[in-house]
Amino acid sequence: MRYIVAEAGRVTDCTATTSSGNVELDETTCRLIRERFRFKPSKDEDGRPVSSIIIENHSWIIDERPEPTATPAP
């Protein structure tokens, strides 16, 4: 994932640099990063907040057990 942390510490942009193979999962990951991640922003040499780019890996473990089948009513 690649995202930008703005001067206020909020994520302003997010993209999947390498797809998980599932577009919905990639989009959900970015949405969660934008909604939930908060940072102390980077600072320049004068101590002023500056935006920064973060590149990192995120892994999901998806349980792929089959859905239980419904049993007919007696």
Automatic annotation (TrEMBL):
Species, as recorded: hydrothermal vent metagenome
Alphabetical list of InterPro entries matching this protein: TonB_C (IPR037682)
Name listed for the protein in its UniProt record: TonB C-terminal domain-containing protein
Domain TonB C-terminal: 2-54
Biological processes annotated in GO: transmembrane transport
